Amino acid sequence: KPLNLFVDPNRNAKIYKVLAHQFLDCDYSLWIDGSITLLIPMQNLIDYYLKDSDIAMFRHYKRNCIYDEAKVCKKMKLDSSEVIDKQMAKYKKEGYPAKNGLNENTVILRRHTKKIEELNNLWWSEICAGSRRDQLSLNYCFWKLKIKPAIFPLTVYKSFMFNFQIHQDANILKKIKPF
Known about the structure:
alpha+beta, 4-stranded mixed β-sheet
């Protein structure tokens, strides 16, 4: 049964993505957004990408800075400007550097270790205390915990390991005229 802890349905949906260790009893997990399909065996990903890291994902296809991403999120009204500004001010005050990377969080391969559990919990805390936009907090959490993720090649949109399909327009049925 889906959890409904928040008024914000975005956070209710993200709890499974971020706190995977609380919902799965396994050594490894692969989060893939609903618009993505895995094209190769998961074991291949584990064997290759989790050799030297306990987490692997794609870099953001366009930006490499959470502060730049924050500007885009505010411009697109993806969350409250005040909430985003407060969160970015906190990170700057703590010394989080600009241009320190930005990940695409549509695919997350994890080895379920204590360190990854610590990462998941910190990331969730940041999402609950700040913006619901998980890209704004994940690289900060990596930095804070000194975790270096493995990076999948290319982008999720041009990957040979995953297939990306654009979500169907949720309002398409309202636009279709009956015969």
